[in-house]
Amino acid sequence: MSGNLGLDLAGTVGRRRTGRVDLLATPTDLARWTVAAGLLDTAPAVSGEDLTWAVAVREAIYRLASAVRGGSPLGAADRELLNRAAERAPAGVRLRDDGGLERTGDLRAALAAVARAAVELLGGPRAALIRECEASPCTRLYVDSSHRRSRRWCDMRGCGNRAKAAAFRARDRQDGPARPGPA
After folding, report:
1. Quick check: is 86 in a domain?
2. In a domain, 29, yes or no
3. Where are the beta strands (DSSP E) in 51-100?
4. To 10 degrees, the CA torsion angle through 56, 133, 69, 26?
5. Fewer CB within 10 Å of terminal CB in the chain, N or C?
6. pTM of the predicted structure, to 2 decimals
7. What whole-number distance in Å separates Cα of residue 134 and Cα of residue 139?
8. How many domains would you assign to the chain?
9. How confident is the model over 4-24, as pLDDT tens digits?
10. What is the pLDDT of residues 110-162, one digit of tens each?
11. CATH code at 63?
């Protein structure tokens, strides 16, 4: 959805500035997310310490991406934490006999893949394409890979649809009461 696994992890917090919603509130939430994000085929064991580490990686990615987006210097502590997370071997992938893909590993291996994706984004040319959703109160970051680099929302099905519906209702109110249609 965001165009990068690192930004997908950062996006597990919604409404960062108002009414914060954390989708990784428990170790079980994090284990499920690794499968939903396509990092692993089976939910890994996740401890409280693992959750704390994942949240630290998530927040470092968000701060670094926000800094890149705003043209600010990258925080040294966040860079170090992300680099440390990316150093570990990522989850294993294997081609099965039936031609399908198998993804295996533990939580730290899954987070290594996320951290590597974030490092490649933040340190590469696509960093200039990081945007924040314009829908209020969404704060999700995404990579604008649209043809004209004019994408405004993190997701058309959610934020984009709500914004367009609100704009339609506002225009409709300006036009006055509904006119009766043909009988």
Report:
1. yes
2. yes
3. 92-95
4. 0
5. C
6. 0.85
7. 8
8. 1
9. 999 999 999 988 988 899 999
10. 999 999 999 999 999 999 999 999 888 888 999 998 888 777 777 767 675 66
11. 1.10.3300.10
